[in-house]
Amino acid sequence: MKLLILMFIGLVACSSWHWEKRGALDGDYARDENFCKQQVYSGTDGVVTKATVRSMHACLVAKGWRKASN
């Protein structure tokens, strides 16, 4: 699980976009991200694929987040 988190952070750090949500408070993204990780990556043995990344993004969008350019 730690490897999965480090890989995810590495992918996010290299991107030219970020997630934002209108009216979000400090900690809202972390809470929603953790929820989505539990939903998407449970049972995947820590394997990150294009499909799991798309599912992760879809989960965040369903929670009201959207990608925004840096």
In words, what does this structure look like?
With 70 residues, this protein is mostly helical. It has one domain. Helix content is 56%, strand content 11%. The protein has three helices and two strands. It has helices at 2-13, 28-41, 50-62, and strands spanning 17-20, 66-69. A two-stranded antiparallel ribbon has the order 1-2. The longest helix has 14 residues, at 28-41. The model has no long low-confidence stretch (mean pLDDT 87).
Tally of helical runs: 3
The major beta sheet can be summarized as: 2 strands, antiparallel
Number of strands: 2
Order of helices and strands: HEHHE
* Oligomeric state, counting identical vs distinct chains: single chain
User: Stretches where pLDDT falls below 50 for ≥5 residues?
Assistant: none
Q: How are the strands of the biggest sheet laid out side by side?
A: 1-2
Q: From the alpha carbons, calculate the radius of gyration and give it in angstroms.
A: 12 Å
Shape: globular
Helical content (DSSP H or I, runs of 4+): 55-70%
How far apart are the first and last residues' alpha carbons, in Å? 28 Å
